[in-house]
Amino acid sequence: MSKTNDDNNSGDISANERDGSGGLHRMSYRDVAMHKVMLQDLVRTEAYEKSIAAVVKPNHSVLDFGCGSGVLSMFAARANAQKVIAVDRSPFIKNAQAIALANGFENITFYHDDHDSLQLDEKVDVIVSEWMGHCLFYEAMLEPLLTVRDRYLAKGGVMIPAQLSLHVGLVVDENVLEDLCFLRDSPYGLDFSPIAQVPFQQSDLVALEPESLLESVANMGSLDMHTITKTDTPRVFTSTLIPSEKAEIFALCGWFSAQLSADVQFGTGPNDAPTHWDQILFPLPEAFSVDPSRELTITLSPQTEQVGKEQFWCWSISDGKKTLTVNEQQLQRQAMVEVPQGKL
Q1: HEC profile of the chain
Q2: Residues ≥6 apart with Cβ < 8 Å to 50
């Protein structure tokens, strides 16, 4: 999917345009680099190509929601879909259209729209979307996709991906702790104590090795993309976990796995082949002792529901006696202060 927000822009057009969401966007070549990163993610892109080839039939109409560079639309056209509809809210869709025409795919119809403004006269047999952000929810794109599904997927139609699952691991890597402690350790002989605790209260994008985590993993739940509704979209994921060994943990680590279709899946965790998603680190304010004799309860909650808005998370771990909780959104509100211009 097109990883775009109100600050991201598009390629070969220099004028301002309004996108389908009503926002004003200035074009930029920076979007090409973003789409290049996703296209270079072979795990992601080849899995979608394989799934589309297996699912799409010659009589099918296919809707690619959040088409980005248009690569999934072209895969659908290559699979001999009768009709392909490509939709994206970013002006980059002009480049996607040019790419499709350069490759001879004239049966792809492009719409510069979002989930609210899109108007189609027909329903489709397949909806394909690469909507997932880091740790699944980073881009707040689930609800827009469900809106499009409810309006335009024909009865018995297929969703790609079919199911997404969320996972959390326990981080024991002391290198992670060392990095978190950087501001605490008076770098350059200076006292950074006013901000030294902040890294322990902020999520961060990481690519961890398997040995950085305990073997035990909490499976936080799954989303069936055919049946989940906007009203039952999870706001809090909760799971219990028996630690595989006694240890001190310094953070939680979150990632997702995707079942695109019956025989095509991939994961984005430390034990999986690397993808552009990596994982998200959820630091703990202090070290937490875990033991196989004490069952853990872990919660993870995405706090942002609006497309293009900054994503905040809330996470916690408890063994029944001790509980550690971080709420990024609450901490952000507390940190927001008006600073007058000029001399303080």
Answers
A1: CCCCCCCCCCCCCCCEEECCCCCEEECCCHHHHHHHHHHHCHHHHHHHHHHHHHHCCCCCEEEEECCCCCHHHHHHHHCCCCEEEEEECCCCHHHHHHHHHHCCCCCEEEEECCCCCCCCCCCEEEEECCCCECCECCCCCHHHHHHHHHHHEEEEEEEECCEEEEEEEEECCHHHHHHHCHHHHCHHHCCCCCCCCHHHHCCEEECCCHHHEEEEEEEEEEEECCCCCCCCCCCCEEEEECCCCCEEEEEEEEEEEEEEECCEEEECCCCCCCCCCCEEEEEEEEEEEECCCCCEEEEEEECCCCCCCCCCEEEEEECCCCEEEEEHHHHHHHHCCCCCCCCC
A2: 260, 264
Q: What angle in degrees, to the nearest 10, is found between the helix axes of 42-55 and 30-40?
A: 70
> Angle, nearest 10°, between helix axes 93-102 and 71-78?
30
Let me know if 158 is exposed, middle or buried by CB neighbors in 10 A (0-12, 13-18, 19+): buried
What pLDDT digit, counting tens, does each position of 281-315 carry?
999 999 999 999 999 999 999 886 555 567 889 99
Tokens at residue 197, please?
Answer: 């605790």
CA distance 192 to 189: 10
8 Å CB contact between 116 and 142: no
Q: Answer yes or no: are the C-beta atoms of 247 and 214 closer than 8 Å.
A: yes
CA torsion through residues 7, 8, 14, 19, sign = negative
Q: Greatest CA separation found in the chain?
A: 69
pLDDT in tens, 136-156: 887 668 889 999 999 999 999
% of the chain beyond a pLDDT of 90? 78
